[in-house]
Structures are given as C-alpha cells and as structure tokens.
Amino acid sequence: MTNTKWTIDPVHSSVDFSIKHMMIANVKGTFNNFNAVIEADPADLTTANIEFTVDLASIDTRNADRDNHLRSGDFFDVENHPSMTFKATKIVSNGDNEYDLTGDMTLHGVTKSETFAVTYEGSGKDPWGNEKVGFTVEGSLKRSDYGLTWNSALETGGVLVGDKVKISLDVQAAKA
C-alpha cells in the first residue's frame, strides 16, 4: 500500500504529560492545541512522513497560576518559542503493530533526537463513512536537555520540579 494523507481529529486525540513534583507526586497536564502532518500506510509505518506541532501556550494543568508560570521565561518562554515540533527521521517496526519512532524534537530553541514507542491501535469507519486510524505514543525527555532548568530547592532536600517528563499521545486521524 502507498502512503495516504491523514488529518488529526483533535476532539478524539490528546497530548498529555506528567512530571514529578516535590519528588513525591506526579503533576499531569495536557496541551489543547496541536496539529500534525501524517502521510502513512497504517499497516506499515516504516515509510511514514510524520510532523507534529504543539502550541505551548495551550498548556493546561488545571491551575491557571502554574500554567502562566509555565508559559513564562522561567519555562517555555512562549513569546520567543511558541511551539514544540517533532519531525520523524526513522521509524523501525518491532512487530505486532509496535514501532520505534525517532525524530528531531525542537523545544525552547533546542533540537535533539528523541525516540518514542508507537502502537498502531487499528482502523475503522465512523458512522458517516470516514476512515479513521488510531495510534498511541509513549516516551519521555529530559527538560534540562532543552534548557528548561528552572527549579527550586526543597528544605528537606531535592527539588520542586523533576527533570524527566513523561509524554503520552492518543491520536485518532481521518483519511484526508
């Protein structure tokens, strides 16, 4: 099969993350605005063209003060770096609809290679006859690798914000 264009369905997709807070709990959040270019044969992603863009100002951790701090120069600095992008450079099949997706992640003006685990969840037609596909994406990155180093020491030792950010995407896309 040849690669087909797919359009992200933002109502049935999510870009979520979690990070350690005070070294004892996880804070979770999501980005509400994102877009992707997907040209793929869902049955074999190894030849896919995938580009993903996240609007960092759309961060939502269910706390307005924290969200505004994350948008500030201490963290994302959305005035100067409004988006996070990922462009696939290599996709390797691990069998059983599982893939390693490697690409160039650009965040806060820094580009680094990152690898994420992708699972093709399947395909089907919605009640209106539109062909849909689903994927899950899991991985992590170190925020310090991207110059995101703001932190605060805790009285009991350790730091307020962890360095490892876990990333989870649920993607549903429609044949364009």
Describe the structure.
InterPro entries: Lipid/polyisoprenoid-bd_YceI (IPR007372), TTHA0802/YceI-like_sf (IPR036761). This is YceI family protein. Pfam families: YceI. This protein is mainly beta and 176 residues long. 5% of the residues lie in helices and 61% in strands. The chain contains one helix and eleven strands. Strands 1-4-5-7-8-9-10-11 form an eight-stranded antiparallel β-barrel. The longest helix has 8 residues. It starts with a strand and ends with a strand. The model has no long low-confidence stretch (mean pLDDT 94).
The portion of residues forming beta strands comes to over 45%
Structural shape: elongated
Ends apart, CA distance between termini: 16 Å
**Helix- and strand-based class?**
mainly beta
Helix content: under 10%
- The succession of helices and strands, N to C, reads EEEEEEHEEEEE
- DSSP summary, beta strand count: 11
Q: Write out the strand line-up for the largest beta sheet, numbering strands in chain order.
A: 1-4-5-7-8-9-10-11
Output the number of helix runs.
1
Radius of gyration: 17 Å
Look at the structure and give the mean pLDDT.
94
Biggest sheet, in brief?
8 strands, antiparallel, barrel
Described by its quaternary structure, the protein is single chain
Uncertain spans, ≥5 residues at pLDDT below 50?
A: none
